[in-house]
Each structure stands twice: as C-alpha cells, then as structure tokens.
Amino acid sequence: MDEKVCSHHKNKRKKFFQRCCATVLIIIFINLLTILIVWAVLQPKKPRFTLQDATIFSLNVSAPNIISTTIQVTVFSRNPNSKIGIYYDRMYIYATYNNQQITYFTAIPAVYQGHKDVNVWSPFVYGTNVPVAPYNGPGLTMALNNGVVTMVIKLEGRVKWKVGSFTTGRYHLHVSCPANIPIGNSKSTGIIIGTAVKYQLQQSCSVSV
User: Fold this and answer.
1) Structure-model confidence comparison of residues 102 and 20, the more confident one
2) What confidence tier does 71 reach under pLDDT thresholds 50, 70, 90?
3) At residue 169, what are phi and psi to the nearest 5 degrees?
4) In whole angstroms, what is the distance from residue 30 CA to residue 99 CA?
5) Phi, psi of 61 (to 5 degrees)
6) pLDDT tens by residue, 82-93
7) 23: CB partners within 8 A, 6+ apart
C-alpha cells in the first residue's frame, strides 16, 4: 500500500514539473517570437562612422622596423535608427599602416546613443618605438617623402541594441576608417596647431556588426 502511495505522489510531482517546464518554454517562445517580430518590423541599421580629421603630432621612422606615432583623430558616429538606441561598450581605437598595427589601443568611454543621435570622439592614438616588419619603415619613409601617408584608423568594441525596455546581448563592432593624410605635401590644406598639423579628411568608414 505504501509503495502505491509513494508511486502516486511521484507521478503527481513528475506531472507538476512537466507542466512547469512546458509553461516556461511557452513563455520563452512567445517572448522570442515577439522580439523577432519587433526586430523585423523596425529593421535596425548599423551605426555610421566618419573620420573627420587627423592631427599629426609626430610620425617618425627611427629604424627600418621601428615607428613612433602620435595622432589625434576626430571620429563622428551617428545612429540612423529612429526607434532603436545603441549602447557602445568596451571600445578601443588604434592605427594601422600597411596592415600592421603601429599604435597602442586607446580606450573610448562607454556611452549610450539615442535615436538619431550623434557622438563625436577625439582620442589620441600613439605608439613609441613600436616594432614593425622591416619593409614598413622604408615604406613609410617613402610615403612621407612623396607627401601622402595612407593608414587605417580602426575601432573595435561591443554594442547592444535597445528597443523600448528590451536590450539585446552584446555584438562585436568593427569599424575601419581609411586615412589618406597629405603630410609633407606643400599643396595640402593642413592647419598648423603649435608643433602639430591638422588635416581635414571627412572620410566614410566601413562598419560591420
């Protein structure tokens, strides 16, 4: 008799847990379906980035494989979405030359970008005696002598999308801004600021999320 009672209670507990699990799964499914529908209707767009200018404080080649750089850049970011906000988190910016990093990572503070909002950052990117491939030093020297240095300003980080009260998980953000800087070019329109020269660029960046 006792065994039958215990078996009956076990069956009741099993059915109760099964119902609870089914209810939770249904709620999760409904929530996910709602999010997908809202996401499809709103059609979120990637943020847009523009490299506005670059101020060169120093750009030196001390050996074929050693480069030192100090640059201040101005980066413009716009949220094109009218109903979706963007959280920028763990953002870093750095410069590359000929596909090789020539500065350290510079952190950009986390920020929330509202609907159709704009953010402007003006960080310094620098590197002292950064080792590079032996062909990059002579290549940069030749570019300086020719009057145009082509480098790429890159931003890496994570973003979250905010729709109403719902916030998504983090997505990796990759931004690449080509910078064709007419440094040393007598025909350039650089603005002298103390010992530095500021160049207006207004170059669009490629963005992937």
Assistant:
1) 102
2) very high
3) -75, 180
4) 46
5) -115, 110
6) 889 999 988 999
7) none
| 3-state SS track over the chain | CHHHHHHHHHHHHHHHHHHHHHHHHHHHHHHHHHHHHHHHHHCCCCCEEEEEEEEEEEEEEEECCEEEEEEEEEEEEECCCCCCEEEEEEEEEEEEECCEECCCCEEECCEEECCCCEEEECCEEEEEEEECCCCHHHHHHHHHHHCCEEEEEEEEEEEEEEECCEECCCEEEEEEEEEEECCCCCCCCCEEECCEEEEEEEEECEEEC
Report, as an integer, the average pLDDT of 123-136: 96
With 0-12 / 13-18 / 19 or more C-beta atoms within 10 angstroms meaning exposed / middle / buried, residue 111 is middle
List 126's β-bridge partners, or say none: 70
pLDDT (tens digit per residue) in 156-172 = 999 998 988 888 889 99
Return the structure tokens found at 47: 């943020």
Q: Do residues 148 and 190 make contact, with C-beta atoms less than 8 angstroms apart?
A: no
Report the chain's mean pLDDT, rounded to a whole number.
88
Under a CB-based contact definition with an 8 Å cutoff, are residues 130 and 190 in contact?
no
Contact indicator for 122, 62 with CB cutoff of 8 Å: no
User: Cα–Cα distances in Å, from 143 out to 10, 65, 70, 131, 190?
Assistant: 79, 15, 17, 18, 17
pTM: 0.80
